[in-house]
């Protein structure tokens, strides 16, 4: 017997889960894998409570009903299928739907790889032009000179760091450089 499990989620606290939960109820879902605002403690705790109750455990033969965002790979690893609520014509539980999902996953992976390559190329070109990439230095030139002078006078890195308001590791690295 196929068990229908729902997945509802919103991105911000200003959005409302009501429509998604109503659609899941209309589909006959027994519960939610996850529900709540993404990245909020309350949403995560609610999803964890449902998982502990057994509602969120999807397995072979289960059908996960979701609006759009769902961990497709994890659902498929567990032998469950996915049905998109906002794309009724796209049934991801059929052979064609699984093929479309595989194709879309390949496109997403390709896009991730292209974004990563463009980012790496951009960093390489910026460094070649002498642009500093990353965090700004914790100490300015005067502070570095002062710290080096104090370290040369055998003052501890911790005391110098406290004086300059930085980590002792930052000061200790000056000894190596």
Indicate the topology.
Blueprint: E1 4-7, H1 18-27, H2 41-52, E2 63-66, H3 72-77, E3 81-84, H4 95-128, H5 141-152, H6 157-164, H7 168-176
Parallel strand pairs: 1-2, 2-3
Helix pairs in contact: 5-6, 6-7
Features:
single chain, elongated, Rossmann fold, 7 helices, 2 domains, 3-stranded parallel β-sheet
Describe this structure in words.
This protein is mainly alpha-helical and 177 residues long. The protein contains seven helices and three strands. It folds into two domains: 4-101, 3-Layer(aba) Sandwich (Rossmann fold), CATH 3.40.50; 141-176. It has helices at 18-27, 41-52, 72-77, 95-128, 141-152, 157-164, 168-176; strands at 4-7, 63-66, 81-84. It has a three-stranded parallel β-sheet with strand order 1-2-3. Helix 5 packs antiparallel against helix 6. The longest helix has 34 residues, at 95-128. It is elongated and about 80 Å long.
Summing up helix and strand content along with how strands pair, one would put the structural category as mainly alpha
Query: What is the total tally of β strands?
Result: 3
CATH class of the largest domain: Alpha Beta
Give the biggest beta sheet. 3 strands, parallel
User: How do the helices and strands follow one another from N- to C-terminus?
Assistant: EHHEHEHHHH
Mean pLDDT level: 77
- Kindly estimate the percentage of residues that lie in beta strands according to DSSP: 5-15%
Helical residues, percent: 40-55%
Q: pLDDT under 50 segments (min length 5)? A: 37-45, 47-55
């Amino acid at each position: 017997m196929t068990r229908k499990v729902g997945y509802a989620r919103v991105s911000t606290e200003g959005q409302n889960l009501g429509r998604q939960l109503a659609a899941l109820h209309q589909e006959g879902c027994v519960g939610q894998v996850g529900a709540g605002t993404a990245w909020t403690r309350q949403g995560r705790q609610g999803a964890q409570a449902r998982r502990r109750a057994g509602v969120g455990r999807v397995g072979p033969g289960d059908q996960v009903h979701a609006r759009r965002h769902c961990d497709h790979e994890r659902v498929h690893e567990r032998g469950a299928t996915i049905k998109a609520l906002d794309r009724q014509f796209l049934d991801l539980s059929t052979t064609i739907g699984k093929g479309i999902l595989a194709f879309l996953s390949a496109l997403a992976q390709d896009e991730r790889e292209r974004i990563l390559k463009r980012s790496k190329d951009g960093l390489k070109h910026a460094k070649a032009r002498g642009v500093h990439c990353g965090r700004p230095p914790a100490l300015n030139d005067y502070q570095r000179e002062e710290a080096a002078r104090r370290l040369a006078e055998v003052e501890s890195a911790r005391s110098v760091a406290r004086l300059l308001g930085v980590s002792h590791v930052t000061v200790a690295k000056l000894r190596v450089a």
